[in-house]
Amino acid sequence: MWTTTIGGNDLSTDSSDPVYMLRHSTAHLLAQAVGELYPGVKYAIGPPIEEGFYYDFEFPQPIKEEELLLIENRMHEISGRKLPIERSVLSREMAIAHETARNQQYKVELINDLPENEEISFYRQGDWIDLCRGPHVPDTGHIKHFHLLHIAGAYWRGNEKNKMLTRIYGTAWPTQQELDDYLYRLEEAKKRDHRVLGRELGLFMFSSEVGQGLPLWLPKGATLRDTLMDFMKKEQLNRGYQGVVTPHIANAKLYMKSGHLKNYNAKMFPLMQDEAEGETYVLKPMNCPHHIMIYANELRSYRDLPVRLAEFGTVYRYEQSGELTGMLRVRGFTQDDSHLFVTPEQLKPEFKGVVDLMLFTLNRLGLTDYRVRVGVRDPKDDKYIGTDENWKAAEEAILLAVQEMGMDYEVSEGDAAFYGPKLDLMVRDALHREWQMGTVQVDYNLPERFELEYVAEDGQRHRPIMIHRAPFGSLDRMIGLLVEHYAGAFPFWLAPQQVCIIPIADRHNGYAQELKVRLRDSGIRVEVDGRNEKMGKRIREAEMQKVPVMLVCGDRDIEAGTVSVRRRGEGDLGAKSIDETTEYLLGLLSS
RNA sequence: GCCGACGUGGCGCAGAGGUAGCGCAACGGUUUCGUAAACCGUCGGUCGUCGGUUCGAAUCCGACCGUCGGCUCCA
């Protein structure tokens, strides 16, 4: 089953759900409190959202975050008044006259946009009244357990050309216990934040001297990247991909031809002028034009297709500074990118093959909670290249494939790439924000622009179709998300350091070093912590660094040729022989 | 980019007009130890940057840089 969403909004919340209703009423309570405290305020919209609600206002003067407390206190006071909440219906003319008289132009605009036959209802509590479809709780006394969280700017109707309003976010729950639990969960989630753990675990860093949104990967983080790349390379080798390597910059003419300079310009770093040679270069925001050049390098036969060119390609996108978020949105990142050049007959099976790889990948990473989004064109927007026929064919190919695969998915208008529609895997971070991870896109348009060809069985030249795909999406974002998913405690195969050997006293260091060489030869990432610290302290630090296995060795072990195995979070598992230990560790690799 | 908040040694914090402190980390020494923090000592800060107010600024004001929460946009 699938639902349609418009403009990417998640409207899955159900207006008959009591919690949804409660939050909606809390938004009204907030608006009433704001109205009492700030005369002249203008009301925009105030819907319930997944874990709370917000209300957008235009304040006569900007407000400060500390004023939220005053507003919240007033809300409690109004709640105590137990004002009945009453519904009334007005004619369109009456409704407009009413809001015009109150000088509420946002409400007038909303009424004007309501469909002809829509009933226009208002909800009154005390002397405060708001345009609203409802439903609401019976009286304000029902609203008790809420908290205002933060203040933010939001453009009226989400359009940056409109005036920026002040949005107040809050949360509301049926009981105090649920509110407390929610606030506790928020605090806990912050501890999983990949920006915090990334520093504590020594994975990555940012430097303002290098530049905003440009990540620097530390040795342990680089090991994680290598592990993920090895995983994907092996999988791609099994699935008939060929690796290629292309440069980070290109002549601007290439990106002129691809349409990027026209349709992706806002996201590209400023062009580089080579005055001496009279050339202009771009820092690549995508890898496709480069891979297209490799495809076009030779005349291809239908026997060669599908051609699957893969590269861990680092791309640079000029994201707005306010949008940068740790590793989850950066300005330079590495995609596990590939472009497949296929015949029309191959499109569906190849597309399904890619989806299979994407799902296999998420499963292996332990990310089982994801949403499938099919991004199609927004017909009102002109940021796309290509003909309507091509778009129709590409969108149908994707929808048919996912339906045949029996997948749950949602269609989102306006979320296509500029050259074609796509299927995205969406995953949430610790704070429940949703991010696009893996993506697969069907593209009839770039092959046309570059006049790509292959010779078919009929001896004639035909045009291939392109599939763009990246199962991880980007290594940077994927690792950021994995850090949060596992709270830094990676499964054994992913852990940057898999084993920490802890010799109890100095005299056991030699034994520990021999063990290390042995395990390293078996392909285990292992270090010895032979520092002059008590064993307990070194165990504690290994636990905090989330090392999955600790091997402790002292006199007894050297005597018996054993090592005592300790599993992170589980404690001492007892002594094992070196062979048993090696086998145990290799067994963990596949778990 | 826009709205709001924040910026003090590597990290976490205190200091609210009178010349910067605490814990952890780091470093040195002692200790050689059986499953989550041994003991003693030492080093370390142009208080994000620049400018202004003041006899005097980490504390007040302005601009810029960066970070955080959103909006817009996207891997």
Q: Under the CATH scheme, which architecture of the largest domain would be assigned?
A: 2-Layer Sandwich
| Tally of DSSP helical segments | 18
Please name the CATH topology of the largest domain: BirA Bifunctional Protein, domain 2
In the CATH hierarchy, what is the class of the largest domain?
A: Alpha Beta
Biggest beta sheet summary: 9 strands, mixed
CATH homologous superfamily of the largest domain, by name?
Bira Bifunctional Protein, Domain 2
Average pLDDT value? 91
Which strand order do you get reading across the main beta sheet? Answer: 1-19-18-20-21-24-17-16-12
Choose one word for the global shape. globular
How many separate domains make up the residues? 3
- Low-confidence sequence ranges: 1-13
Report on the structure:
It is built from 18 helices and 29 strands. By secondary structure, it is of the alpha+beta class. Strand 8 (145-155) and strand 9 (164-173) form a beta hairpin. The protein has three domains: 3-191, Threonyl-trna Synthetase, Chain A, domain 2 (Threonyl-tRNA Synthetase, Chain A, domain 2), CATH 3.30.980.10; 225-484, BirA Bifunctional Protein, domain 2 (2-Layer Sandwich), CATH 3.30.930; 499-589, Rossmann fold (3-Layer(aba) Sandwich). It binds one RNA strand of 75 nucleotides through strand 8, strand 9, helix 6, strand 17 and strand 21.
State the main characteristics.
Threonyl-tRNA Synthetase, Chain A, domain 2, alpha+beta, disordered N terminus, Rossmann fold, 591 residues, RNA-binding, 29 strands, BirA Bifunctional Protein, domain 2
